TrEMBL record:
Residues 521-543 are annotated as: Disordered. The lineage of its organism: Bacteria, Pseudomonadati, Pseudomonadota, Betaproteobacteria, Burkholderiales. Coiled coil: none annotated. This is PhoX family phosphatase. Keywords: Signal. It comes from Caenimonas sedimenti. It comes from the Bacteria.
Length: 560
């Protein structure tokens, strides 16, 4: 790889300006094309390709590329489908709700596996493919780790407490050293509900956002396991990291309860000095914490077969950020209760409540860890936690990025040193308090997705909310976007701007850095038209989330 290029030349592209256009913009010399949209057939052999349960789901999010060939020209793209927009999912909207609509909404979330190949400079879907697979809201899965079989995990449908149907609200992700995919269940609480007055949440249920009137969709009226008054334990079976073997389409996904239950964001893996795995996780709600799970045992050669139970034994920690740039990993009790109620265990241990921790990325050679804190407009409000060293802005509308170095450079350490990498926002806005690592940094807001390529460039993706985008203090930041940061120089350059209303997420580069895959989520989303102006990206019809491929016209390495 391009070692002759001095660091100061990176990123080596002309940055694109902020944009409010309804299109994807990339730098001169680059080309972007749509690869996989919502409702595209995945090419699952023998299915005919029709129906949401075998098509690409909605609202693409975290994603990874698993090479299938030594030269990386064939591989699997594995991607999350976070949530549903029911006004687009059903031609007549969710009302009136029916059992068929509830099923379709369950089928539209989860994970897609597709086979892709690079042919004559273009990535194509291989359809049919023996690897192609949909995992969705009713796919059978196993529950493993300390909470498996516990009384709180048992339901009328599953007296064993060790098997469950489905995964949904799949947001960020991770990849294990043995080549499996970790999908993270984020806002699961919004799918549970009950008739008014029939369910009163206890303190733990409240902490996880469960309430009789908490459901976004009336699943509970048509699929009884989501009725909190009848099956309250079903909600304990969501909010986990789920391990999927993309190489075996017949494999059963496994919910790994040792990693703790939260509104799961990221399950970013790295190795400890002695060869165990450390998994870094965010919990994306205001004033929730950052976690690390360290396995008891070391990784063994031999792929998933040799490491099937590795994530079931270990220690779960929550982070406390102290002043002076010091931090501590606080070990949580190794019990089923502490795993199911990880938030309560983190409180009891004294973890720091953060400004919505989202993605975590680990530098490929230094092991330095970066985390996005997307925003927290309630920081410092009456009755809410005030500012602290690691969350230094009250009513933090723009978000920030914090980084840490594990003590002794060992991901297994129980202490770390940290600092703030970026305080995001428009530096021209008085009082915004924006701070970038150099004068050569393009401004952005609401950092969310985060990815290190194999050369150590950091790719930052944004998720400014539609209620603030292109307005007020956010006017000059434009649509959501993807930026590229050179840690050595402090340069941050805007690489891609998304269409109107979208979030940019799921960025992953191939190991040779010659292809960048990225997801455009919820294009056309607006907060102020009631969902009526529903035409647009990518093809002028109803807007569709999609995976976009970016290549250089000269076939060179992206970002250099
Ligand atoms: Fe689904 Fe926290 O973003
Ligand atoms: Ca996110
Ligand atoms: Ca989002
Ligand atoms: Ca977000």
């Amino acid at each position: 790889p391009n070692t002759a290029t001095p660091d100061t030349a990176l990123p080596g592209f002309a940055g694109v300006p902020p944009s409010s256009a309804d299109t994807v913009v990339v730098p001169p010399g680059y080309r972007a094309s749509v690869l996989l949209k919502w409702e595209d057939s995945l090419g699952i052999a023998g299915t005919g390709g029709a129906g949401q349960a075998v098509q690409a789901g909605m609202h693409h999010d975290g994603m990874h590329f698993f090479p299938l060939s030594a030269d990386g020209s064939r591989g699997l793209l594995v991607l999350n489908h976070e949530y549903t927009d029911e006004t687009l999912l059903h031609p007549d909207g969710m009302e009136p709700a029916t059992v068929e609509k509830v099923r379709r909404s369950q089928f539209a979330m989860g994970v897609s596996v597709v086979e892709v190949a690079l042919r004559r400079g273009e990535w194509e879907l291989i359809r049919p493919s023996p690897y192609a697979r949909r995992i969705h809201g009713t796919t059978p899965m196993r529950i493993a780790g300390p909470a498996a079989g516990h009384a709180w995990m048992r339901t009328a449908h599953d007296p064993s407490g060790a098997s469950v149907l489905g995964t949904f609200q799949n947001c960020a992700m991770g990849v294990t050293p043995w080549g499996t995919y970790l999908t993270c269940e984020e806002n699961f609480q919004g799918h549970f509900g009950a008739a008014p007055g029939s369910f009163r949440p206890d303190a733990a249920q409240r902490r996880y956002g469960l309430a009789a009137d908490g459901s976004w969709l009336p699943w509970w009226q048509f699929d009884e396991r989501f009725d909190l008054s009848k099956h309250p334990n079903e909600a304990n079976r969501f909010g986990w990291v789920v391990e999927i073997d993309p190489m075996d389409p017949t494999s059963t996904p496994v919910k790994r309860t040792a990693l703790g239950r939260k509104r799961q964001e990221s399950a970013t893996c790295t190795l400890t000095r002695d060869g165990r795995v450390a998994v870094y996780m965010g919990d994306d709600s205001r004033f929730e914490s950052i976690y690390k799970f360290v396995t008891r045992d070391t990784v063994r050669p031999g792929g998933y077969a040799a490491n099937r139970d590795l994530l079931d034994h270990g220690t779960l920690y929550a982070a406390r950020f102290d002043g002076g740039g010091r931090g501590q990993w606080l070990a949580l009790p190794a019990t089923a209760e502490a795993s199911i109620h990880a938030r309560l265990a983190a409180d009891a241990a004294g973890a720091t409540p953060m400004d919505r921790p989202e993605w975590v990325a680990v530098h490929p050679t230094t092991g330095e860890v970066y985390v996005t804190l997307s925003n927290n407009t309630q920081r410092g409000d009456p009755g809410r936690p005030g500012v602290d060293a690691a969350n230094p802005r009250a009513r933090n509308a723009f978000g920030h990025i914090v980084r840490w170095r594990e003590h002794g450079g060992d991901a297994g350490a129980s202490a770390f040193e940290w600092d703030t990498y970026v305080l995001a926002g428009d530096p021209a806005v008085a009082g915004a308090g924006a701070r970038y690592p150099s004068a050569h940094a393009d401004a952005f807001g609401a950092p969310d997705g985060l990815h290190f390529d194999s050369g150590g460039l950091l790719w930052i993706q944004t998720d400014m909310s539609g209620s603030v985008m292109n307005k007020g203090d956010f006017t000059r930041l434009g649509n959501n976007q993807l930026l590229c940061a050179n840690l050595a120089t402090g340069r941050i350059r805007r690489f891609l701007t998304g269409p109107r209303g979208c979030e940019v997420t799921g960025c992953v580069l191939t190991p040779d850095r010659r292809t960048l895959f990225v997801n455009i989520q919820h294009p056309g989303e607006t907060s102020d038209d009631g969902g009526t102006s529903r035409r647009g990206w990518p093809d002028g019809g109803i807007p569709r989330s999609a995976t976009v491929v970016v290549r250089r016209e000269d076939g060179g390495m992206i970002g250099t």
